Amino acid sequence: MIIRPPSNWFRMLLVWNGSVLPSILPQLGLMLAISLVALLGDGRIFGERVPLDTAPFPLLGISLAIFLAFRNNASYQRYLEARQLWGHILAAARTLTSQTLAYLPPERLDHAQFARQLIAFVHLLRHQLRGSDAGADLQRLLEPQAVAQASARNYRPIAALNDMRRTLAGATAGLPGGEQTVWMLDAQINNLADAVAGCERIAGTPIPYPYGVLLHRTIYAYCFLLPFGLVHAIGAATPLIAVFVAYTLVALEAIAQEIGDPFGVAPNSLALNAMSRTIERSVLELCGLALPAEAPVGKGYQVS
Amino acid sequence: MIIRPPSNWFRMLLVWNGSVLPSILPQLGLMLAISLVALLGDGRIFGERVPLDTAPFPLLGISLAIFLAFRNNASYQRYLEARQLWGHILAAARTLTSQTLAYLPPERLDHAQFARQLIAFVHLLRHQLRGSDAGADLQRLLEPQAVAQASARNYRPIAALNDMRRTLAGATAGLPGGEQTVWMLDAQINNLADAVAGCERIAGTPIPYPYGVLLHRTIYAYCFLLPFGLVHAIGAATPLIAVFVAYTLVALEAIAQEIGDPFGVAPNSLALNAMSRTIERSVLELCGLALPAEAPVGKGYQVS
Amino acid sequence: MIIRPPSNWFRMLLVWNGSVLPSILPQLGLMLAISLVALLGDGRIFGERVPLDTAPFPLLGISLAIFLAFRNNASYQRYLEARQLWGHILAAARTLTSQTLAYLPPERLDHAQFARQLIAFVHLLRHQLRGSDAGADLQRLLEPQAVAQASARNYRPIAALNDMRRTLAGATAGLPGGEQTVWMLDAQINNLADAVAGCERIAGTPIPYPYGVLLHRTIYAYCFLLPFGLVHAIGAATPLIAVFVAYTLVALEAIAQEIGDPFGVAPNSLALNAMSRTIERSVLELCGLALPAEAPVGKGYQVS
Amino acid sequence: MIIRPPSNWFRMLLVWNGSVLPSILPQLGLMLAISLVALLGDGRIFGERVPLDTAPFPLLGISLAIFLAFRNNASYQRYLEARQLWGHILAAARTLTSQTLAYLPPERLDHAQFARQLIAFVHLLRHQLRGSDAGADLQRLLEPQAVAQASARNYRPIAALNDMRRTLAGATAGLPGGEQTVWMLDAQINNLADAVAGCERIAGTPIPYPYGVLLHRTIYAYCFLLPFGLVHAIGAATPLIAVFVAYTLVALEAIAQEIGDPFGVAPNSLALNAMSRTIERSVLELCGLALPAEAPVGKGYQVS
Amino acid sequence: MIIRPPSNWFRMLLVWNGSVLPSILPQLGLMLAISLVALLGDGRIFGERVPLDTAPFPLLGISLAIFLAFRNNASYQRYLEARQLWGHILAAARTLTSQTLAYLPPERLDHAQFARQLIAFVHLLRHQLRGSDAGADLQRLLEPQAVAQASARNYRPIAALNDMRRTLAGATAGLPGGEQTVWMLDAQINNLADAVAGCERIAGTPIPYPYGVLLHRTIYAYCFLLPFGLVHAIGAATPLIAVFVAYTLVALEAIAQEIGDPFGVAPNSLALNAMSRTIERSVLELCGLALPAEAPVGKGYQVS
Lengths: 304, 304, 304, 304, 304
Prior knowledge:
Five copies of one chain form a homopentamer.
Chain A: H1 21-40, E1 44-45, E2 48-49, H2 56-103, H3 111-130, H4 135-141, H5 144-151, H6 156-172, H7 178-204, H8 209-234, H9 238-259, H10 272-287
Antiparallel strand pairs in A: 1-2
């Protein structure tokens, strides 16, 4: 995720990082080449005039607009929902911590250890979603035995929640009014479990594949034909217009692709590292424990 | 569902599986034939010039765009909601398992048997939605008597939930604090029952029929008239443009049709097999029981 | 509601039932007449050339597209929400039945009678929404005295829920753990009451009237002017194109009208009869009672 | 709100009430005048030819379409949410009444008085939202002392809910199982309070002001330029087309304005009077008390 | 936020405040200059004719429309959600106050002090979201020691909620039926905590950066090319049309930018000051304490 302070309207025209330009330069280079072929050959290929004008482009434009708008909205919806799920995780983690602090005396629950268990769950979820190795985070937070146990499972975040539920069931057993307390704590565990299932759903069910193929083909067909359709109308301005139209279309496709995979590690994916760190810090602060530093901001205003 | 690793932008232009091209080849062949008739006859039929140019197409385009966008969004909404409902089933199944493990001692509930009952419910729902035979899955999971009982019902997943509720009511009767426990477990059964009703709603109430008819007719009228409208403007490029426009429109209709029936067995329907297997595996892991293998990925990155 | 198995792409072009063509034939006939007047008079009326070309139609098209898309989406939203509310009624009716069976012994509640009370509620709601006579259904399900009592009320489904709540309050009074049970049952009654209020809202608050007037006028102005705008550009093809454009616009308006009144009895309204029957069957099956047959499918795949 | 039975497609073209025509006649008159100036002067102003054709209008059309669609959707969303909130109020009022009747014996709560307190709350909310005087309704329902007390407050509906909560807390104190009852009743009070906050939010936070200014200017600039752009293309048809285009745009803006302020008293605002009356009637019927008549339908099918 | 009474349709064309015109004057001035260069040079730059006509603009228009509509909708969604979250805070604050008043006797809770604690939480959240200094508000409401404690934390609103939960846990300990009461109060604290997490999410996760860059570039490329595309078609009308088109596009971008950062202090950001004051007033009125005045309306109908 790129978090960049707002800049002057003119400087924003020249931004390089965060404009997805770097990742689509090859395609734009190809577009420029095609445009120059069309321009220098006066719309001919092998001496044959390509019989195109601008008439067919609005016809292609209907499908193109529907595909692009749909793909972009569907991707952003996924991004937004993923972000909301992590917001719910933050809220539930804080609430669970605050509730155990208020309703369970220290002799019934080791609050610091429970907080570490909760934080380990968050990191386990992040590593599962990104397919990265949870080892370092686990060792930092849990005892060696618990690390081994966690690593042996397939559905690790859920197993962590299951352990937490058991811990809390033990801590409240026989407490006066404990049924009510267990109910409140159980509800937060469920919130966390629902968020896990939501994240797994987004990670495991991409936007149906043919949409991507169809959009991709429509964009490139549209772009590759464009110079031959424009060259008789606008002549020397063809490369400029054709490359710029291609830039907007290809860039939008590229952004939608990154956004639609919100748990990835592309520049515009969600900043799971920073969010996990925030949850860790907030839970620890509630417990009155020492806080690690916030996640650093990388080059180009990049938060990972 | 097709889950395919992202490929190079150029190779994606040539993808065959997952592009719905195979299923719409006949229509595209017909479009090519009509285009050639228009091109070779110079826009004449039986010697009469078809008096079309590109002017009327934007007029048809308004309805076409509204129908296409609506149909596509409505279908995707159904797909998304169906997927969410199965996400809720996963979450509720895990929570119910975790809760029974934490709050009900083994002498009150046979956890392994209850897990199998829960897994059988999931497979019953899948078979009901797909209209397939649940026999093999039931025999694998339940005792013969329970299999016979389940098969005699009309609304099988709901009957399975009803049995589970009765089992849990018995297991908690007289337990200290049992009212609270029964309330928590009952809430998960309700979550599962709500998901069943949601799935039945999607399966039983298609998108109103006339939308499909109207979209279908508009697409084909648009496509069949297109070559005669284009031929005087772009001549030899007519077959290329007309077939490509038809491809985008017919393919989008085909995708929307598949997606709009998310419990079907088309290549882009939901992977109910794989999701049932995931639920089974996750529930069994929580209980500490042996896990079956994950659902295999078929030819062409196909998950069923 | 029309539930029709998918047909071949070619046969679908020729479907008659479910295409709303029958109900808009007069308007299309008028359009044909106007087109022929424009064509045969060469775009003249009373000898005066109507000075139109295709230029103004995209200008009208902006409003037309916004009105059509809005009206259609708003109508479909109403349809969808109405269907969801009836899905909630199914889910709550099943859950309430299952809960009373599991938590209330037969000596405290006559389960069969309660089920009939619940089913009567569903039919009362259906008859209220459609403005039809509930007499036959009530007499089939309730005792004469209860029939008379139900008929004397203004807000009948709500009165039925109120009676059910009182029945359940009596049945649980003094039961050990009864407070928790009454809470669970009360929640399902609330779900049913919320669905009633939702249905009343949809039935009582149509889409604001001026939208319909404005859309109607824009469509007809657009269609009636169209032949005179097209005739100089496409000559003899004018009637074909003009009637087809009118077909798509008028048909979409007709569908949106039917869908937007989801509790009506038009061919594309919700199948309230079939849904009530499904709820009745599902509730009775849970109680182990005899089931009536499913609602029959009418002519033209029509489910009422 | 206008609730009008569906009429014949032809008569609907001629509807006067409910078409917002009356309120935009001045603007349309001005449009007619401008069109005639353009037509009679052959597109000249002070002898200078206004150098416009239809080319720039699609460029303006992009912004216009986005503004119009956005404004219309945002307004309708507000209307819909406001209507839903009042639906929630109806549902919660009924549920609260039914619950107090079922769970609180008459010696603990004066049901008739509580019903009047609840009804007074509804009218207080309506009067606050419309800025009208609640005096008559309060005097009809409450004792003089309570009227004086209610009138002295700033946030009256919330104060009424606060009083009801206190009444119920007193009525349930010491009742066996009373904690559970108070919880159920408290939840309904919260539902009512949430609806109050929702209504206040809609009433107090209009759609951001600049959207309205921008849309307004774009519409009028578009309309005032239109005759000069059309006159060379369609000559004598210019006034007809220009006025009709202006009618659709200005009328849509006018509708969106009315709908976007759903608690106002414009013809298309919500029928708060009728809805309050329905809630009053439904609550009274549940208590077995005498019902007032339904709210009357005004001239032009107007429900206020 | 600008809250301005509706004005006459004609005067609204001339509004200055609230039209975002002031903030985009430099860009419009530049547009005017470019238009004049194009007009006076007859579409030539350094003697070279810029070979553009209006044909390429609809091609750019597709991307432009998608970007603009998406950006605008995404921004408004953020604005709306932020407003809803503050609506939830108002509702939860009132409910929590009303509940403590009804269920906790004064000897168990100092209601006035608790109200001040709650109000301080609201101001802490506002100051955190706007990055402003909470000192004055804290000193007004809390004791010096509590002020120091609050200021030492990183996540201040959450710490305030945590303190409130502890206060309530202490006040209900040992109260008969106190478990139920603690549950009800705990639920409101959770509502507040969820709203905090929601606000933090909106504040911390802007709309993905590249969307803004892409939209910005497309708008300016479109606008800067426009005069050269229009000058041969509409001659002297070019500056008028080009500047007006630029005005609509640049203004929409500017509004979307302000709205998309709803917790900022731009003229169209949310009126957090006024909303905090309303919550403070409403909570104090429920407690029967003296109310501060409402937040003043600034110059130009501005509410901050």
